[in-house]
Design goal:
The complex is a heterodimer of chains A (about 240) and B (about 400).
Chain A (H helix, E strand, L loop, with lengths): L10 E13 L5 H6 L5 E13 L3 E5 L6 H8 L7 E6 L2 E2 L5 H11 E4 L11 H12 L3 H14 L15 H13 L5 E5 L7 H13 L5 E5 L3 H5 L3 E6 L2 E5 L1
Parallel strand pairs in A: 3-8, 3-9, 6-7, 7-8
Antiparallel strand pairs in A: 1-2, 1-4, 4-5, 9-10
Helix pairs in contact in A: 4-5, 4-6, 5-6, 6-7
Chain B lengths: L1 H10 L1 H38 L4 E4 L20 H9 L4 E15 L6 E7 L11 E2 L21 E4 L1 H7 L6 E5 L2 H6 L1 E7 L2 H6 L3 E4 L1 H8 L9 E6 L5 H11 L4 E4 H11 L1 H31 L2 H9 L4 H42 L9 H26 L5 H5 L1
Helix pairs in contact in B: 1-12, 2-9, 2-10, 2-12, 2-13, 10-13, 12-13
Classes of the chains: A alpha/beta (about 240), B alpha+beta (about 400).
Chain lengths: ~240, ~400
C-alpha cells in the first residue's frame, strides 16, 4: 500500500514508493554464487512521505515494522530496491555511494538508539568528528564542538570520555554530533530507547528544539516521543497504515 | 585523521601493546634469523680468512661434520711427504698439513670423554692465543721422515674445553685415539686459543700433527685433512696453484674462496634448511603482522562503520586506519629492532659457550633496516587492505550484526 503525503516548497525530505527487499542468505559471495532462487523479505513496501522545514515527523510502529530501514534509506545508509528519495533538492537514489556519503555529511544528522560514540575520543572529539571530513581546522572543530556541548548542557563534560558519561549524557553528545554540521535534516532512531523516562524527556526536548529551522524524523515506539511530533506515520509490515 | 588514529593508539593500551608486541616479534624473528644466516656465512669466511693461507690442498671433498668422529674427513695420504714436495716448489713460502680426529680426553686418566683433536701448528701469526703461550717448537716428532723425534706433549685448548675439563694453562690432559693410548699420553696445556675451535665449530684440543697421528695410530698412512699453502709475496697465486695441480693430480687445490664454496656445497641440505628457515621467518613475520593488524582493525569495524555513517568518505576512513596501522608498525618495528640487540647478544653468548663460535648472529645495518622496513611496510599494506575491506559498508547496521 502506498500512502501519498503532501509536498511543497518547504519540503526538505521526501520519498515516493520506497521499497526495500532483502534476500535471505545473500550476505556472502558464496551464497550469492550458489543459489539463484532465494526467498526475499520486504522490509519496506511502497512508502511515501514528505517532511517540511521546521516539522517533526514521528514514525511509529512495532519492532520489525520497518522504522530503522526507512531511516537508513532516508539517510543514504542503504539503497532502496525501488522508489525515490529527495533530500534538499537532490535525488538521493541517483547518487553513487560517494555522493550519498557527501550528501549525508552536508545535509543529514543521525542520532542512533545506541549512541555509537567513539570510545577512544572525548565528548568534544566525538562531536567534532564529522568536521574532520569537512576539512575544518582543529581550532574551528574544537570551538564548534564546545559551543554545541554548551547548548546540550554538557559544557563541563567536554573532556570526558563516553564511558565517563551517563546514558542521557551520551545521547546528548550524540545529538550535538548530529547537529555539528548544521544539517537540514535530523534523523533519530529510537533516541530514547535506552534512557529512563526523565532523561528521555530532556533528550526529546532537545530534539524538538532543534527542529525550528530543520526537518526532524523521529522513529520510535515510545508514546512520549511520538507526542512531541507534529504528525505521526504508523508503520506495520513495511507499509504506512496511518498518516496522522 | 592523525588525531583519531592517535586516540586509537592511546585509548586501549592493552590492545595496542599486544599489537605492537606481535609486530615486534615478527620483526625480531626476521632480524635474528637473517642475522644467523649472515653469521653462518660470515663465520665460514672468517674461519678460512683467519687461517691466513692462500691455497688448500685436499684429497677430495671436505665435509664439516663437527658432531661426528674427527669433525673433518682426512683425505690426504702421506701428508708430510706431500707437504714437503709442495713447499719445495718455487713461489711457495710454507706448506703445512693439518688433521682433525676424534680422541678420548680425560683430566685424570679415568673419566674419558670423546673430543675433537686437531693436529696443527698452534703457533704463528694466524693463531690467536688468549692465555698462556703457543707451541714452543715446530713438529719435531716427525723428524727426518719418521716418527722418531721427541714428543713435546704440548697442548693448546680453547676456553670451552678448559671449562669442560676444569683445567687451565699448566694443567695436564690425557689424550689418545683409544682409552688405553690416552692413559699413556699426558699432555700439558700451554695455551688457551679459540682459533681451531672456531674453525671447526666445536671444542678442540690441538697438538702437533705427528703427535696426533701417534696417539691415534695413524702414522702408517700419515693422513691429514688438508695441506695449507702460503704463497710468496712475489709469486702469482694462480700460477702456483696450477703448478701444484700439475704435480699432484690426485689432489684438489683450491683458493680460500673455492674452499668455502666446496665445503658449503657439501652442506647443501643444511644451507637449504637455513634458507628455508629464513624464508619461513620472513613469511611468518609477514603473516603474523598481517594477522595482528587484521584482528585489531576488524575489532574497530563498528567505529569505522559509524564514521562512515557520520559522513566520512571511504578514503578518509581507510586513510585514518592505515595511519593507525602505520603507527603500530612503527612502534612494533622500533621495539623489534631494539629487542634484536639483547637477543642476538644472548644467542651469541649461548652459542659461544656451547660450541665456541662468537658472533653466530651477525647484525648489520642492512638487516636491521630490512627488519624494520618489513614491519612498517607490511603494517602499512595490510592495514590499508583490511581497512578497504572493512570500510566497504557505511551502515551501522553492519556493525550490529
Amino acid at each position: 500500500m502506498e500512502t501519498e503525503t503532501r509536498s511543497n516548497d518547504e519540503t526538505l525530505l521526501s520519498c515516493r514508493s520506497l521499497t526495500r527487499e532483502y534476500t535471505r542468505g545473500a550476505d556472502g559471495w558464496l551464497s550469492r554464487v550458489r543459489s539463484t532462487d532465494r526467498p526475499s523479505v520486504t522490509a519496506l513496501d511502497g512508502v511515501s512521505l514528505a517532511v517540511d522545514r521546521g516539522e517533526v515527523v514521528g514514525i511509529a510502529g512495532p519492532s520489525g515494522s520497518g522504522k530503522s530501514t526507512l531511516l537508513h534509506l532516508l539517510a543514504g545508509l542503504d539503497e532502496p530496491s525501488d522508489g525515490t528519495i529527495e533530500l534538499a533538492g537532490t535525488d538521493v537514489t541517483a547518487l553513487s555511494g560517494r555522493g550519498r556519503t557527501r550528501l549525508r555529511l552536508d545535509h543529514v544528522g543521525v542520532v542512533f538508539q545506541r549512541f555509537y560514540l567513539l570510545p577512544s575520543l572525548s565528548a568534544r572529539g566525538n562531536v567534532a568528528v564529522p568536521l574532520i571530513q569537512r576539512g575544518r581546522s582543529k581550532r574551528a572543530r574544537r570551538d564548534r564542538a564546545e559551543s554545541l556541548l554548551e547548548t546540550v548542557g554538557l559544557g563541563d563534560r567536554a573532556a570526558h570520555s563516553p564511558d565517563e558519561l551517563s546514558g542521557g549524557e551520551q545521547q546528548r553528545v550524540a545529538i550535538a554530533r548530529a547537529l555539528v554540521t548544521d544539517p537540514d535534516v535530523v534523523l533519530a532512531d529510537e533516541p530514547t530507547g535506552e534512557l529512563d523516562s526523565a532523561t528521555g524527556e530532556r533528550v526529546l526536548e532537545l530534539l524538538t528544539e532543534v527542529a525550528d529551522d530543520r526537518a526532524v524524523v523521529l522513529a520510535s515506539h515510545d508514546d512520549r516521543a511520538l507526542r512531541r511530533a507534529d504528525r505521526v506515520l504508523h508503520l506495520r509490515d513495511g507499509q504506512i497504515i496511518d498518516d496522522g | 585523521m592523525a588525531g583519531v588514529a592517535g586516540a586509537w593508539i592511546r585509548h586501549d593500551p592493552a590492545r595496542t601493546t599486544l599489537a605492537v608486541v606481535g609486530i615486534a616479534l615478527a620483526v625480531l624473528a626476521a632480524t635474528v634469523l637473517a642475522g644467523v644466516g649472515v653469521g653462518v656465512l660470515a663465520t665460514a669466511e672468517t674461519k678460512f680468512d683467519a687461517a691466513d693461507r692462500d691455497l688448500w690442498v685436499t684429497g677430495g671433498p671436505v665435509r664439516f661434520d663437527p658432531g661426528t668422529v674427527g669433525g673433518i674427513e682426512n683425505t690426504v695420504v702421506d701428508a708430510h711427504e706431500v707437504a714437503d714436495g709442495v713447499e719445495s716448489r718455487d713461489g711457495v713460502e710454507t706448506a703445512v698439513p693439518m688433521a682433525f680426529q676424534s680422541v678420548y680426553v680425560s683430566p685424570n686418566g679415568s673419566d674419558f670423554q670423546t673430543h675433537v683433536g686437531a693436529g696443527a701448528p698452534a703457533r704463528g701469526p694466524s693463531v690467536s692465543i688468549a692465555e698462556g703461550n703457543p707451541f714452543r717448537n715446530d713438529d719435531v716428532h716427525y723428524a727426518n721422515g719418521s716418527y722418531d723425534g721427541p714428543m713435546t706433549h704440548e697442548l693448546v685448548i680453547d676456553r670451552q674445553t678448559a671449562n669442560r675439563f676444569d683445567v687451565t694453562v699448566g694443567d695436564t690432559l690425557h689424550v689418545g685415539g683409544t682409552i688405553e693410548t690416552a692413559r699413556n699420553h699426558e699432555f700439558t696445556v700451554v695455551g688457551i686459543s679459540p682459533t681451531y675451535s672456531r674453525f671447526l665449530g666445536t671444542p678442540t684440543v690441538t697438538m702437533h700433527l705427528s703427535e696426533l697421528q701417534e696417539v691415534t695410530g695413524t702414522t702408517a698412512s700419515d693422513r691429514a685433512t688438508f695441506i695449507t699453502v702460503d704463497v710468496r709475496d712475489d709469486a702469482e697465486t694462480a700460477a702456483v696453484k696450477a703448478e701444484i695441480e700439475r704435480a699432484h693430480p690426485d689432489y684438489e687445490v683450491r683458493t680460500n674462496e673455492e674452499q668455502i664454496r666446496a665445503i658449503l656445497g657439501e652442506q647443501a641440505v643444511v644451507l637449504a634448511a637455513a634458507a628455508s628457515l629464513v624464508t619461513l621467518a620472513v613469511a611468518g613475520g609477514l603473516a603474523l603482522t598481517a594477522n595482528v593488524l587484521s584482528s585489531v582493525i576488524y575489532q574497530r569495524r563498528r567505529e569505522l562503520s559509524v564514521l562512515r555513517a557520520l559522513g566520512w568518505s571511504r578514503w578518509t576512513t581507510v586513510g585514518t586506519t592505515t595511519l593507525w596501522a602505520l603507527f603500530l608498525g612503527l612502534l612494533g618495528s622500533v621495539l623489534g629492532v631494539l629487542a634484536t640487540f639483547p637477543v642476538a647478544f644472548g644467542m651469541n653468548r649461548l652459542v659461544g659457550s656451547i660450541v665456541g663460535f662468537d658472533g653466530v648472529v651477525r647484525l648489520s645495518p642492512r638487516i636491521l633496516v630490512g627488519g624494520a622496513g618489513l614491519g612498517i611496510a607490511v603494517s602499512l599494506v595490510s592495514g590499508f587492505l583490511v581497512a578497504v575491506l572493512v570500510s566497504r559498508h557505511d551502515s551501522v547496521a553492519v556493525a550490529d550484526r
